[in-house]
Amino acid sequence: MVGRHKGDDPFPGNPAATFRRLADEAYLSWRPHNETAEDLRRERIVADRFGEKFSLIMHKLSETLYGVDFAMVQKNGIPRGLAEVKIRYSLRDKYPTLKLGLAKWDKLLRWGNYGASLLIVQWEDTLRYVETGKVSVAYGILQRRRGQNGDTEPCVDIPINAFETVIDGPPPWLEDQESQVARQ
What we know:
By secondary structure, the protein is an alpha+beta fold.
């Protein structure tokens, strides 16, 4: 392998796994990062709310290394799985499905071989999750209009009714806005 020492290969003797890892690294390196500091702050809030509900510690992971947002660990140190956190700025029932890029879905499914693999979604009215290996999805095309490489990509359509409720009600940042409006 070019630029790497033989001992650095996490999949020695398995060229297909090594190729997949290198392809993942290449994909992540060309794709623009659109998360702002505020997005990351809100993602952390959502992860912590989920963790509190299920007595888990949510450890932020490197997107480049793992391709998902958080490791879920019990308070006694036992790993439970990995999770991707998404925030949608709409009510849960606005659309019949949630669209997620196929590359992200594939990563979640692969991590499911090692423990729970969850997609956690905060809508404006509820926090919910779905275990990726336990839901049937349809495949389609996701089209964004950001003017970036990767704006059109294959996706999965996850039925909204497949998500399990964690907490009903708005996220804290919307509650804060509502209370500020009420005080004025």
